[in-house]
Amino acid sequence: MDPARNRRHIDGVRAMVKCMNGHGIKSVVSDGNWGLVSGDSMNLPGFDKYRVECQVKSFSDNG
What is the pTM of this model? Predict the structure, then answer.
């Protein structure tokens, strides 16, 4: 997940945003990383579960 060590970091960021949005958690690409449209999204049911699942899916070699 370190952009300095991963030349495909931005691809992972885009995949992360797409995955989170797919679960109804509004996310955007911001300054080379992903971010939430609103901090209120952290209170949505399943937020932590989806954040971890999307992160693994988006930044793993198997992504």
Answer: 0.86
pLDDT tops 80 at residue 2: no
CB 32 within 8 A of CB 2: no
Largest CA distance in the chain: 33
The per-residue b/e assignment along 31-59, b for 16 or more CB within 10 angstroms, e otherwise, is: eeebebeeeebeeeeebeebbeebbeebb
Q: How far is CA 28 from CA 11, 23, 38, 61, in A?
A: 13, 13, 10, 22
pLDDT value at residue 61: 66
At 27 the three-state DSSP class reads strand
Q: Are 20 and 34 in contact (CB under 8 A)?
A: yes
Q: What is the mean pLDDT of residues 9-23?
A: 95
